[in-house]
Structure to design on (318 residues):
């Protein structure tokens, strides 16, 4: 646990196993303990840290008991390395925070979309015989749009809930097929916004898990369509980096982002320009978690008035 052999530790001061900042206060704790010896079980709320031979610190739990011997009282300590447990607790806390934030946002957005579906459906039932074809087309268009929005929200919720327990294997991605599927899902939005989509002749080969990577592309392209210019001009591409990774990117012609906005982009519940765009707020947060779980990183390059380029890296398949 500490990186020492028995022989290396025998006769050494206990401070050898303590971080520098803990040595002084630990000496006081030792004096207090021998002044009032007692049994102290594991998990009594103490935030304790130990020091490895190489100088790195790690979290521990320590139980104490007292032994009466011919040489006087001895303290008996059982030390447990709880690094894995702390990591699991942090991951669980992060997941719970994301799910809680998502639940609040999803409840609002699903309720709004359901209100539209119910309202237009009831109108069609009551006025179907007298409604014009133009009005009928408008109502059905709104119904379809909100149903697709609800479907996307539910899909992202299921993806977020399954990420930590999914047993995935990375393989060489068919990026053109993935991007084509994303554009198929966004077909209505592309047509409605009269967006110009610019695709490269080819993409560098990369490793990943196709269903997850598709969601990253979907979030990036969807945001580019929402926050791009009027009409949006969205350019997709990929470049092979010198470090063995591939960087994929989506560039828009929107208003661009301030540095403060960029710093908050990939946090849960972040929305850019809430007064202009309504939507569920965890898309980019989920994209970040996906990319990091696949061994890559997300990025943003933006200037106010010059649009934004969202990127993510994945290991190359070359």
């Amino acid at each position: 646990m500490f990186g020492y052999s028995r022989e290396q530790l025998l006769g050494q001061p206990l401070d050898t196993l303590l971080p520098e900042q803990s040595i002084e206060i630990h000496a006081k704790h030792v004096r207090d303990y021998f002044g009032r010896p007692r049994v102290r079980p594991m998990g009594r709320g103490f935030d304790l840290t130990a020091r490895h031979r190489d100088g790195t610190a790690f979290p521990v739990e320590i139980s104490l008991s007292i032994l009466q011997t011919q040489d006087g009282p001895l303290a008996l300590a059982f030390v447990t390395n709880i690094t894995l447990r702390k990591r699991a607790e942090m991951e669980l806390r992060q997941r719970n925070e994301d799910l809680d934030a998502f639940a609040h946002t999803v409840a609002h957005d699903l309720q709004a979309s359901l209100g539209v579906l119910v309202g237009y459906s009831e109108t069609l039932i009551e006025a179907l015989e007298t409604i014009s074809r133009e009005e009928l087309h408008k109502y059905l268009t709104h119904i379809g749009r909100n149903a697709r929005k609800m479907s996307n929200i539910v899909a992202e919720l299921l993806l977020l809930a399954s990420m930590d327990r999914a047993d995935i294997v990375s393989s060489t991605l068919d990026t053109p097929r993935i991007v084509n599927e994303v554009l198929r899902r966004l077909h209505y939005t592309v047509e409605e916004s009269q967006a110009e989509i610019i695709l490269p002749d080819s993409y560098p080969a990369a490793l990943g898990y196709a269903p997850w990577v598709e969601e990253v592309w979907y979030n990036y392209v969807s945001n580019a369509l929402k926050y791009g210019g009027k009409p949006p001009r969205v350019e997709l591409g990929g470049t092979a980096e010198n470090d063995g990774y591939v960087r994929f990117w989506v560039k828009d012609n929107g208003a661009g982002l301030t540095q403060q906005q960029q710093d908050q982009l990939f946090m849960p519940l972040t929305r850019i320009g809430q007064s202009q765009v309504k939507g569920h707020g965890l898309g980019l947060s989920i994209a970040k978690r996906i990319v990091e779980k696949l061994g890559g990183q997300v990025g943003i390059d933006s200037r106010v008035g010059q649009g934004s380029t969202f990127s993510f890296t994945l290991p190359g398949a070359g």
Remarks:
- The two ends are 39 Å apart (CA to CA).
- Confidence is low (pLDDT under 50) at residues 269-281.
